[in-house]
Amino acid sequence: MKKNPLKAQRKRLSDQVVEMLISMIVSGDLKPGEKLPPEPVLMEQFGVGRSSIREAVGALELIGVLSVRPGDGTRVTDWASNVEPKSVGLSLLTIGHDKINDLMEARLELEQSIAKFAARRATVDDIEEIQKQHKSFLQAKKSGRKMITADLAFHSAVVKACHNTVLIRFFSEMRQPVRLWMEQKAKYDWGFEQVAEEHEIILNAIKSHDETAAQTAMCSHIKLAGEKLISAMAGS
Fold first, then answer.
1. Does domain 95-235 have CATH number 1.20.120.530?
2. Could you give the CA distance from residue 63 to residue 75 in angstroms, rounded to a whole number?
3. What's the Cα-to-Cα distance from 128 to each of 58, 116, 152, rounded to whole Å?
């Protein structure tokens, strides 16, 4: 792994580490299957702290560019050889005023289709998994802990139930931007009661194999959250 002469700037350090790692993958300095150096080496190489390295690695793991396995370290995945420096997921890693509307439109188109196919194709096991994640979200809401992780797990269960490998891959690339959307939304302390109710409507539509109802419920869920977030950010 060649030493990178660039040092990350103070602004959004983890995002810049992401960009530099992607650049190294695209250029061939980091190859599929190759293990990343230990955190202290990366910290020295990029001139950033441990938290920035971990955030960057976590972001790239979520969109499938890196694989983190206990005892084996962090490796570049085979899929990373096809990644583009300006891929959809990476371009939306930083959620700002100008990105929320783009992400909302993308989520609306993608997850409505996912909900439709989930309602059409969900197996008994799929529905059980969606129910399980819905219950986990309710428990997280009650305890006030790990709500974003539980929220994302619910959506991921719906995605899996659509049984369309292309749509699943698209959502995988958008997974980190969606998480950042949820984190940004949580800053405004709206509470998660309405989210739980909307999840239940989506769940019931999929259980009933009602494609129209599933699409409508997912559309309403994403659009309402996006519009509130845009409004809140504009007023902040």
1. yes
2. 14
3. 28, 18, 17
The domain locations on the chain are 13-82, 95-235
Check whether domain 13-82 has CATH 2.60.40.10, yes or no:
no
Same fold, 13-82 and 95-235: no
Task: Dump pLDDT digits (tens) for 218-235.
Answer: 999 999 888 877 777 666
Count other C-beta atoms under 10 Å from residue 146's C-beta: 14
Q: Which one is predicted more confidently, 73 or 184? A: 73
pLDDT tens digits, residue range 52-83? 898 888 877 766 688 888 888 899 887 655 55
Q: Give per-residue burial for 3-42: e unless 16+ CB within 10 Å, then b.
A: ebeeebeeeebbbbbbbbbbebbeeeebeeeeebeeeeeb
Q: ∠ CA(52), CA(55), CA(59), 5° rounding?
A: 140
CB 129 within 8 Å of CB 157: yes
How many whole angstroms separate alpha carbon 232 and alpha carbon 89? 23
Structure token digits, residue 2: 């060649």
Cβ-contact 115, 214 below 8 angstroms: yes
